[in-house]
Every structure is written in structure tokens, then in C-alpha cells.
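Before relying on records like the one below, remember that each one covers exactly one chain. Contacts with other chains, cofactors or solvent are not represented anywhere in the record.
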Amino acid sequence: METADKTAITVEATVNAPIEKVWESWTAPAHITQWCHASDDWHAPYADNDAQTGGKFKTTMAAKDGSFSFDFEGVYSNVVQYSLMEYGLGDGRKVKIEFVGDGDTTKVTETFDPEDQNPIEMQRGGWQAILDNFKKYTETGL
């Protein structure tokens, strides 16, 4: 899939939690399975994450009614603890996540190459919904 000529999509959220808590929630599989879904009729029944440069991750995202599931997976090209994650997906797309802590708040910014199957706004909305679930979970669920 060719994405070089496409404009990357950015979503962001400010989480009311210190950077250490945000990082733990983002990287620990036990936490990932609690927040990694775009709507309440989906869930993440499985997650594995080796959050280091060269490490791999995989999260299974599934409809709760069993009608559909897929694995979201890739390989980290650059990980700087409490600051940055960059990874490539199997289809060649790139993702960059920046974490900027400021005391009891942390800004999380995700920038990703779009895919070809769905409209840009749908992709932005889906990634933003997952990020919003992450924010809610990290602020209240840990």
C-alpha cells in the first residue's frame, strides 16, 4: 500500500495523570485490554507488548458479539521511555506517539499514516475514540 503521498492524521488528548501512570497504562498489556476499543460494543480480549526499540506488539480488537475481530500489530522502530514511540504496521504505515508530561497532566499525540479502505474522517474518529477511552481509563480506571 502506498501512503507516501497521503497526509498523516493526528489525534491528541491531555490526560489528567502524571507521565509515569500514563506510560504504564499505555504499555502494560493488562491495561491495554481495558481501554483499546473505539466503542462499547467492541473490546480487546488480548494484548502483548514489548515496548522497546525492536520489540513487537499485538492487540486483538473484537466485536463483543463475535461477528468480527482483527489483530493490530507492529514493530517498534524507536522507543524512548516516557517520551516517544514510533512503530511500523504490517502494511507499511508508520505511527508516532509523543508523550509530554507536565506535573499531573500528560499530553498524548498520535500521528499515523492513513489506510486506503476507510474515509480519513472515519479513521481520525476511530483513533480519537480509542485515545479518549485511554484517557478515561487512565484517569479513573487504574
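The chain is about 25% helix and 40% strand.
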